[in-house]
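Re: [help] complex structure
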Amino acid sequence: MNSGIERFSLNQQTIRQWSLPELVAGCTAAGVRYVGLWREPVRAYGLRAAARLVREAGLAVSSLCRGGFLTAADPAERIAAVDDNRAAIEEAAVLGTGTLVLVCGGLPPGSRDLSGARERIADALGELAPYAAAHGVRLAVEPLHPLFASDRSVVSTLRQALDLAERFPAERVGVVVDAYHLWWDDTVAGQLARAGRGGRIAALQLADWITPLPEGALLGRGQLGDGSVDLRWFRERADAAGYTGPVEVEIFSPALWARDGAGVLAEVLERYRTHVL
Amino acid sequence: MNSGIERFSLNQQTIRQWSLPELVAGCTAAGVRYVGLWREPVRAYGLRAAARLVREAGLAVSSLCRGGFLTAADPAERIAAVDDNRAAIEEAAVLGTGTLVLVCGGLPPGSRDLSGARERIADALGELAPYAAAHGVRLAVEPLHPLFASDRSVVSTLRQALDLAERFPAERVGVVVDAYHLWWDDTVAGQLARAGRGGRIAALQLADWITPLPEGALLGRGQLGDGSVDLRWFRERADAAGYTGPVEVEIFSPALWARDGAGVLAEVLERYRTHVL
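Output below.
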């Protein structure tokens, strides 16, 4: 029953109606070996208790979401952001994951200076990468779809993410390949190969692209197979580039959140077998 | 009073509460010399009557929106789309504009094949370009923001638009540079220079990027100066690349449509002076 899902990881936002114990029990029952966690529910449950719960169930944490938001121009805000990322690094270490996902941040209020914002991200990575390495954690820069360029991430393409990451050693800064954010880009095949050559792929995430987008655009991701993304292509290209890590399904969808969690997981696994393997 | 707005063009969608006679009267009263027109309101008024109305008021038509939607895989749909584009070319010629804006089309239902869709666009351009040239009209490929890749345009970047356009002579196929669609892309400066060198810039359009996006994303454009786009940068770069044509303001905004048209135009012109000139 469980063949083929050895690399599958369930990002907890996909079934956020589940508490952490429900997530652990549900994944264990379904034969899932990896979970992707988010800081807020982990802290609400208690960091060390969460780490113990997951570890004792035999699950591994594929990634922790999320650090980042490193584009503030205001010095006090910048210091606060770097401090918060240090805390995220520590949390990742306690949870036993080597991957901290970074959503790097949009434009500060009133700013139109994209390249300045990107440079501030690079500066912050330089400050954080040694701290992360000392904790056995790699910073994973996630390019977000260009629709989020103003408010969530001025890093919009895999090329931009690699341009940032490659300023640092590969074991310190990698990239997240999320098919939802990158599917539209006809340069992504070449950039995936580049990422693989450099050992930069820290995580592979999947969700499908469906329209119409809801207000605010964030919570409009589709179940695997329901949309426009050739998900298998991404998995195959990442594999061909040498990526052997978990394949994390991260879907933000109120339609999925309104359903029974076990039913959602069964459907996600069936779609994973059909559209990803 | 009118200095500085010699190149300004009002796309009629910006004040779509105006009828065509109101648009012509409003623009004339404000000293505006160009209008960008859409096929549907022009046909509702009557093509030849609209052409006469605009011409007799001394206005020039900067562009006609829009042809395109050339990605259908179904042969009958494809023939219908090419026929419709031939009609759009004829309408552009009657209106006296040399620029037909093409929104090239998204993925056909159920398809995930972006490159196949892009090739079908190229095929259709090959079929349409001679017909357009015979009518004194240039096809203008508009790259749309990647958020529209699945349902409106698989051409998402200026590079992709130029890759398509450059398969044909520059006087037959150009590109539309719309800051709203391209602002997030850090390769756009180089592509603007490329477009200018090749004489490919057929139109320059402006709107600002604001969030949150509304449901469906289409009608969420911002008034000039209200958002994240460095509009002056786009105008200056286009100028530096040799573009001397109209600068068209095209904002889809229910907030602007709910207001008095003359007041909107006055505000747009004031913002244009502040943020574009």
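The beta strands of chain A are 8-11, 34-38, 60-68, 99-103, 138-141, 173-178, 201-206, 208-209, 221-222, 247-249.
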